[in-house]
């Protein structure tokens, strides 16, 4: 049985842990590998390795750092098919979606290669007589990242490239459910030239998470995952004096106005709701049909029935398995609760027959109508291929409904009215807005800007905001004297003149 290694001080090492977990193919239940829950001593060794490497890495020139990430993005492109195959085997998403997962992370790597312009400070000349002021964006030290199962390539690539490019060193804790593609990406990072100790990896569960939050030598923690765990991480890390950014759960709404392009909108909704088996924090899992657009529901249901459910490796598959037996049980349980609470089950995806993959963790596209606030299927993030449909009489009613929901990751509006779109984007209290775009995750030139209960911390991952998260702004005010400078005597006032 293959075992997943730790990365400490540039070496892939076997854990001495007595606690292990199996990595399982969700389509077949085949055991792919065993992953250790690292010991406290192994976490300490990883952090110490990063701390020692920081002494020299922080002084490495921006040009050297940039060239490493130029090489790294090239290696990721060259190994795209291999990486996608690993990801699909352990996580379940289709091969094309796995490549998309990797590509969205690759975009951040490319952004990291532009660190020379991203990490520039500011300068003001002669702010007072003979006085200049400028800022330096200096690295913090050892940073850490805790990543989820649903994007085992993209989310790690959101974190360690930008942290390392800005001069920090890093300790990464991937999801213990699907760490293999993450480890292959780490191998490629070392091949690209990331020095020993600059990037370290430990695996584990609650104990390692708490250890990262508590460790005195870790200066910042980045997290993506569930609201429950993210809230815990933010509170514990900040209590220990660390910077923290936590991207958490969501209930993303898609609002459809009657003037929207019908076919294009329905196709977009189906893809955004059921792609990746609904296991996206940005999935459009909640549909609000406004006015006459409620008549579109039968067509939405009929098109959803035609999606192909199978293993992610099978050609033409639209929806793969969910990640684990536990996830399948939870999703089916929430579907049952939706029925009991009075929602109408328009399409039932439970217990599908998938030829050749009878043991897989499959649930097909599922659609509820007549959903109301207060129902479990509306209040909870299902994290499966389940779309809940609500109705609103007007755009204003839809905006009020969404703004009442505590989550704020993303929202979308489908319309051909510029006036409606402008009012929506101004009045909606959600951090990321799509206009005729179902999943409005910005490219890395911008920052991921989830809000409210979906995010803790002021600064988001990647983009300009993450430069501020991973650096300390130092302001220098200086004056130089020469022999021609005339002394004006002692000045006890606060101003510089």
Compose a concise summary of this entry.
By secondary structure, this protein is α/β, with parallel strands linked by helices. Helix content is 37%, strand content 21%. Helix 9 links the parallel strand 10 and strand 11.
Strand order in space, largest sheet: 14-15-16-13-12-18-19
Poorly predicted runs are none
**Tally of structural domains:** 2
Helix run count: 16
Average residue-wise pLDDT: 96
Shape type: globular
Count of strand segments: 22
What name does the CATH topology of the largest domain carry? Aldehyde Dehydrogenase, Chain A, domain 1
By CATH reckoning, the class of the largest domain would read Alpha Beta
- In the CATH hierarchy, what is the superfamily of the largest domain? Aldehyde Dehydrogenase, Chain A, domain 1
- Structural class by helix and strand composition: alpha/beta
Query: Termini, distance in Å?
Result: 72 Å
Radius of gyration: 25 Å
The major pleated sheet works out as: 7 strands, mixed
User: Which CATH architecture of the largest domain would you pick?
Assistant: 3-Layer(aba) Sandwich
What share of residues is helical?
25-40%
Strand content: 15-25%
Structure description:
It is a single chain. This protein has 497 residues and is of the alpha/beta class. It folds into 2 domains: 6-248 and 463-476, Aldehyde Dehydrogenase, Chain A, domain 1; 253-435, Aldehyde Dehydrogenase, Chain A, domain 2 (3-Layer(aba) Sandwich). It is 37% helix and 21% strand. The chain has a 7-stranded mixed beta sheet, sandwiched between helices. Strands 9-8-7-10-11-21 form a 6-stranded mixed beta sheet, with helices on both faces. Strands 5-6-22 form a 3-stranded antiparallel beta sheet. Helix 13 links the parallel strand 15 and strand 16 (386-392). Helix 2 crosses helix 7, helix 3 packs across helix 4 (95-112) and helix 4 runs parallel beside helix 6 (154-165). The longest helix has 18 residues, at 40-57. The mean pLDDT is 96.
């Amino acid at each position: 049985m293959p075992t997943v290694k730790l990365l400490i001080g540039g070496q892939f090492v076997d854990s001495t842990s007595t606690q292990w977990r199996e990595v399982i193919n969700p389509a077949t239940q085949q055991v792919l590998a065993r992953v250790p829950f690292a010991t406290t001593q192994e976490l300490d060794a990883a952090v110490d390795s990063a701390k020692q490497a920081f002494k020299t890495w922080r002084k490495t020139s921006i040009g050297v750092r940039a060239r490493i990430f130029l090489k790294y993005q090239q290696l990721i492109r060259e190994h795209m098919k291999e990486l996608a195959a690993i990801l699909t085997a352990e996580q379940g998403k289709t091969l094309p979606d796995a490549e998309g997962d990797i590509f969205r992370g690759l975009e951040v790597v490319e952004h990291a290669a532009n660190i020379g312009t991203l990490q520039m400070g500011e300068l003001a000349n002669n702010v007072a007589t003979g006085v200049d002021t400028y800022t330096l964006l200096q690295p913090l030290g050892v940073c850490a990242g805790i990543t989820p199962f649903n994007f085992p390539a993209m989310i790690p690539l959101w974190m360690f490239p930008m942290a390392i490019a800005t001069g920090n060193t890093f300790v990464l804790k991937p999801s213990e459910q699907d760490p293999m593609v993450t480890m292959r990406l780490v191998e490629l990072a070392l091949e690209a030239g990331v020095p020993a100790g600059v990037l370290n990896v430990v695996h584990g569960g609650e104990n390692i998470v708490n250890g990262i939050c508590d460790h005195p030598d870790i200066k910042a923690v980045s997290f993506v995952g569930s609201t429950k765990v993210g809230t815990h991480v933010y509170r514990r890390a900040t209590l220990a004096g660390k910077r923290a950014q936590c991207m958490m759960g969501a209930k993303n709404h898609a609002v459809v106005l009657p003037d929207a392009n019908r076919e294009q909108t329905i196709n977009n909704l189906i893809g955004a709701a059921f792609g990746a088996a609904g296991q996206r924090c940005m999935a459009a899992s909640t549909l609000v049909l406004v006015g006459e657009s409620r008549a579109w529901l039968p067509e939405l249901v009929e098109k959803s029935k035609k999606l192909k459910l199978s293993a992610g490796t099978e050609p033409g598959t639209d929806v793969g398995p969910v990640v684990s037996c536990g996830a399948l049980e939870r999703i089916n349980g929430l579907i049952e609760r939706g029925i009991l609470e009075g929602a109408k089950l328009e399409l039932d995806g439970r217990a599908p027959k998938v030829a050749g993959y009878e043991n897989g963790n499959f649930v097909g596209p599922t659609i509820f109508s007549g959903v109301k606030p207060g129902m479990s299927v509306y209040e909870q993030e299902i994290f499966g291929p389940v779309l809940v449909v609500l109705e609103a009489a007007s755009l204003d009613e839809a905006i009020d409904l969404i703004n009442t929901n505590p989550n704020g990751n993303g929202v979308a509006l489908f319309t051909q009215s510029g006036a409606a779109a402008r009012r929506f984007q101004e009045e909606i209290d959600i951090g990321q807005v799509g206009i005729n775009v179902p999943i409005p995750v910005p490219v890395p030139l911008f920052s991921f800007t989830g809000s409210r209960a979906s995010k803790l911390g002021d600064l988001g991952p990647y983009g300009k905001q993450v430069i501020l998260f991973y650096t300390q702004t130092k302001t220098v005010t200086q004056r130089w004297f020469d022999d021609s400078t005339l002394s004006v005597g002692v000045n006890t006032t606060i101003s510089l003149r």
